[in-house]
């Protein structure tokens, strides 16, 4: 499952282009984990990585669980809303069809998923990045059948791509001795393994048309509530956070190298460690009162792992950085989204001037 920092930007264009009678927008395709999952896992009946019980979604729409691992919106929801764009639909959403894809794009993100196939195995069902790419290939097939190969190639090459995974590969793999990877690798060789795998995955995405893509980095993983609860003194676990730094450095270098080698590729790395670390270290500076424990918890039992109907909620959700042991609140997501829009405005397909009022968390 994902935590606060593996965060990402999702920006698409308002302009339309004629495509064999279809008004095809430039849309986005999202590959990620629980930070960006908008309902895929809720349609995986055997998955143990779920956000399908109250109080998930309490500040979104009708207040019922909707598949998002937070009380409200994800970072991607907020960014898309603020520039007046539709939200990509979960791949497993019952409404999914060719017209929805052409109008909204697709979100393949899955709670518990990682860069590696073996990551998050104890969740039983989840989509790894390789699986998400496989599903994207299927999406391409149905669009080719709908509008023809020439226009489909144009549609996918003009789209925006976001890849936001990695923390599960540490938290729900390498840092857990039940996984073989924790014994097979050391810190550096495991990061090398991740980079080799991610490099291959991004090359496959390029071969499938991904030309404008952003990969988001990790934040201080050792400071999420779960890691604090598992420590002896309740403080951040430096080992996990240092692994995030190592991952970020390697990923930034790899993305720069890929961009120079792949034709017409605009591959960027979104660094967010500094921002998230500052929010956690100085919460009052950003309007929060608490950055070390979850708003939704099971009384004083820690770690609570997930939010359930028997959980207790904090009095003011807007004052907490974390919603549960892993994931940020709507308010924290909004803060991050606002900063990322300023930092990475180049992901826009327009001139960067389009604006729209941001719907509140109550809007669907």
Could you walk me through the main structural features you see in this protein, from its secondary elements to its overall organization?
The chain has 364 residues and is an alpha/beta fold. It has a single domain (28-344), classed as Rossmann fold (3-Layer(aba) Sandwich), CATH 3.40.50.1110. Helices cover 36% and strands 12% of the residues. The protein is built from eleven helices and twelve strands. The protein has helices at 75-82, 98-104, 129-147, 149-158, 167-174, 181-184, 187-207, 225-230, 238-261, 273-281, 330-343, and strands spanning 16-19, 22-25, 28-32, 89-90, 105-107, 160-164, 212-216, 266-270, 290-294, 296-297, 312-313, 320-322. The strands form four sheets. Strands 4-5-3-6-7-8 form a six-stranded parallel β-sheet. It has a two-stranded antiparallel sheet with strand order 1-2. It has a two-stranded parallel sheet with strand order 9-12. Helix 1 (75-82) crosses helix 11 (330-343) and helix 7 runs parallel beside helix 9 (238-261). The protein is globular and about 60 Å long. The two termini are 24 Å apart. Residues 2-20 and 351-362 have low confidence and may be disordered.
